[in-house]
Design goal:
Growth Hormone, Chain: A; globular; 5% strand; two-stranded antiparallel sheet; 16 helices; 2 domains; mainly alpha; single chain; 431 residues; 2 strands
Length: 431
């Protein structure tokens, strides 16, 4: 079979994997705006409203390492099919929560937890799968970049779409968001059928004779990796918590005082800026070191968040965003608290942090790299734990004081970039 015919045969699964790349972001970022729905429909606190987000990310702590083991046992295609099936079930349970009466809150949390299993498994599959389907090398990397860009686009659209569907926050119901769940289940079903029917290659990876437990223990001997793993926990927490709490703040009539639809568009801008930041980061990544990029991003993020905390919520500025009008969706200016502008701009800073932290943390690990990646996946659960803590503080002390959690996170990342990322264990054999 010729190379051109192989590429033709793989065109459909490539499209499906890119769609799944986007679905990871679509389903994951659904949890934050759903906090507005849960908060108002069931009259719960900000802490409980954001529990769906926590349930989604805690699944990473449970499935991270087993997911890697599963990958080695049944292969990438079967793991992807299993992840897609679990994702369909997870979103399906969330759909059923809209028909569960007073128990709907708990049914939704179960659905978010199950969906989290799917997102964790998909995260372990889509990158190497796209690389393989592209034939590796520059083409494979290009497909991964396309998938990452689509991931950011879906992250931008999710809060916007949910905001449009919800309308008035005080009347929000889970049933309002059903169209989003229909879309998610349809994409999962289509992707499952396509991947089941098409023969695709398995990524070729060298197998180690050492036990996974020994490899993980070896990775944990490196100080810069341990501190980097904590940095990943911290990073995902601030990446999710910054826009998540902002959405709750803006939609609260007693705080931001903005309608839910507009709040969704404002928060969507945060994710759009992450897309811009990733594109810029990719273009300069070959010339600027990960250490410098992470240092600048962390320091800039600190300045922006501190400005947001100490700004007056009564001071309004015009912010360029997509917005809903009587004639449809258009781009224009909308009045928002200046605090929101500072928090939205943090998206530019968080955009390049994952890659920077990962590169610094795994440098010099050699044979321990795969095991280290599994540990990283477990610590993605920070995206659920830290926003929940931030939500609790928002209930007790207010929305703006809750952002001191984000300040602490950024301060740690700045420390890691400047000090903690240095490999001081070069004497450990890695061959």
């Amino acid at each position: 079979m010729t190379t051109s015919s192989q590429q033709k045969n793989y065109a459909l699964p490539i499209i499906m994997m890119i769609l799944l790349f986007g679905m990871i972001s679509f389903v994951t970022n659904l949890a934050a705006p759903m906090g507005i729905v849960l908060k108002n429909q069931f009259q719960v606190s900000n802490f409980l409203g954001i529990m769906g987000n926590m349930a989604n990310f805690i699944a990473y702590a449970v499935m991270g390492i087993p997911g890697g083991i599963l990958l080695t046992k049944i292969g990438y295609k079967k793991t992807a099919l299993l992840a897609i099936a679990i994702g369909f079930i997870g979103v399906g349970i969330q759909y059923l929560s809209g028909h569960s009466g007073d128990a709907g809150f708990y049914v939704y949390l179960i659905g978010a937890f199950v969906a989290g299993f799917s997102m964790c498994l998909l995260n372990t599959v889509v990158n190497p799968m796209l690389n393989t389907l592209g034939g590796g090398g520059n083409k494979g990397n290009q497909l991964i970049q396309v998938g990452g860009s689509f991931n950011s686009i879906m992250a931008t659209l999710t809060p916007i779409l949910v905001g449009v569907l919800i309308g008035e926050a005080t009347k929000a119901q889970i049933t309002d968001v059903f169209p989003v769940m229909y879309i998610a289940m349809a994409v999962f079903a289509l992707a499952f059928v396509v991947l089941w029917a098409v023969k695709i290659p398995e990524p070729n990876e060298e197998k180690s004779n050492e036990k996974l437990g020994d490899l993980m223990a070896g990775a944990l001997k490196f100080r810069h990796f341990v501190l980097g793993a904590i940095a990943i926990f911290v990073y995902v927490g601030l990446e999710v918590g910054t826009p998540g709490i902002l959405n709750l703040f803006l939609s609260d009539p007693n705080a931001g005082g903005i309608d839910t639809t507009t709040a969704g568009f404002v928060v969507g801008t945060y994710w759009f800026l992450m897309l811009i930041g990733r594109l810029v980061g990719a273009s300069i990544g070959g010339k600027v070191s990960s250490k410098i990029m992470l240092t600048v991003a962390s320091a800039s993020g600190l300045v922006l968040v501190l400005c947001g905390i100490f700004s007056s919520t009564s001071s309004l500025v015009s912010m360029p965003v997509l917005q809903q009008t009587t004639t449809g969706i258009s781009f224009g200016l909308t009045q928002v608290p200046i605090t929101a502008v500072f928090f939205v701009l943090v998206g530019l800073c968080t955009s390049i942090m994952w890659g920077g932290i990962f590169n610094l943390a795994v440098e010099g690990l050699g044979k321990y790299l795969a095991a280290a990646s599994g540990i990283f996946m477990v610590l993605v659960c920070g995206g659920g734990i830290l926003p929940a803590i931030q939500g609790y503080i928002a209930d007790v002390a207010g929305y703006l004081p809750s952002y001191w959690v984000v300040v602490a996170c950024l301060a740690y990342l700045l420390f890691y970039a400047l000090v903690g990322s240095k490999n001081v264990n070069k004497d450990i054999p890695v061959d």
